[in-house]
Amino acid sequence: MISRLLVALHLATVVPAFFLGTFLLVRPKGTPLHRTLGKLYMILMLGTAVIALFLSGGAGTRIFGHFGFNHLFVIPVAIYIPRAYFAARRGDLKVHKASAIGVYVGALLLAGAFAIFTPGRLLHVWLFE
Description:
129 residues, mainly alpha, 5 helices, 0% strand
């Protein structure tokens, strides 16, 4: 029961974060909308990362009987989301951009691809089996 709730919460944060992140990447930067949605995106990504820590590693090798490969993506999220935020606050747009794109590509695209296309993982089972 708790596992299903965690999966639902994880999907409830990561799916909107994906679409919001995509929107933020293709729209004009520095606008009030970008700033507001960017903060929401960061909150969603941090929530996604925290929830992920409580999810079981699923298919494949587990560390300490719980953590799987995708849990490694929590580390860059925990580092680069605050880094992106504080870089934007101090006007360091180069660091902000690199951090934001890194989180999007790494934590959303790569981790998402592993979650979807790795046989035995819950999303793979839901989508392909």
